[in-house]
């Protein structure tokens, strides 16, 4: 194992943040797997899974089982980790720009495609290497004027040429679920069967260019531009894994989740050995079929349904009560499906998102991610 640390260029004098990754395996070995956690710095399930995963990787290294190159960035957002206000961790939005830390990644295809116009070949393997080189060159010349931009570029410099990118997050209250594109469905299945995820939300472009999308969308965009002339394979699988809710942080669960990731890493041959996935595949449903449910008024939220429940269309999920006006309004499921995430707070503002249900039918497009 080796450790690398970079210092982010700072926006303020005498204040510097560092970003650290630990790497197992021979530099340049394939498959290259990049894992990070805590990009939303108020989400601790991912970093504790990363901690236990690293213990497994140390053991695998001692037994000579590391076949690829595996990076782990356990705290991917040193800026957000310092954002506490009045005893509460923030960490989802940058307090300076108010930008979500998991949006606005550079669109690599847009800034690298012209470099590829006259050099692609008829060989998909060679083209994969050429695309990775073009992405690296684009990142090297990216203009960076703020610390949050430098964080995004620093993370992408470590991850852009990976074969697999795992971005570990969590929701407020949630079941284990993940986001993936249509690029590598067999890998999505393997990951679900390895991790006990109950739901895979599938979408090629969700909007906002989150970290996971910033890795798969460029290959799809290059295929759209060059695919009739040159073969461009879906060379990178990336996912955002949502390790349940913010309070689902305990060593027993995280140890099992880390062991399950070892099963996945073995399945993709990043680790030598045999490990069969233990679980049933998740339901694969379109992100465009997952409506949010919004508060009908401000007040106190009480729930009539639990996260993980299968709900019917029109089912009352809970109520919002305003004890001043003494008005109590229900909120109902707009579609039948799986209630996979719920808001943390028991107070709400009118119009605030309260929960989300994964259904079968696509009825929305465009910017699909809540901020
Ligand atoms: Zn997150």
Task: Estimate percent helicity.
Answer: 25-40%
The fourth-level CATH homologous superfamily of the largest domain is Zn peptidases
Overall tally of structural domains: 2
> Roughly what is the average pLDDT, rounded to an integer?
96
CATH top level of the largest domain is Alpha Beta
Could you please say which CATH topology of the largest domain applies here? Aminopeptidase
Which shape, going by the Cα principal axes? globular
Computed Rg:
21 Å
| Structural class by SSE content | alpha+beta
Tally the helices.
8
Q: How is the quaternary structure best described?
A: single chain
The largest β sheet comes out as:
9 strands, mixed
Q: Which small-molecule species are bound to the chains here? A: zinc ion
- Please state roughly what percent of the residues sit in beta strands, choosing from under 5%, 5-15%, 15-25%, 25-35%, 35-45% or over 45%: 25-35%
Distance between the termini: 36 Å
Please state the second-level CATH architecture of the largest domain.
3-Layer(aba) Sandwich
Order of the strands making up the biggest sheet:
1-2-4-3-7-11-9-10-12
Total count of strands: 20
Unreliable runs, pLDDT <50, ≥5 residues?
none
Give the SSE order as H and E letters. Answer: EEEHEHEEHHHEEEHEHEHEEEEEEEEE
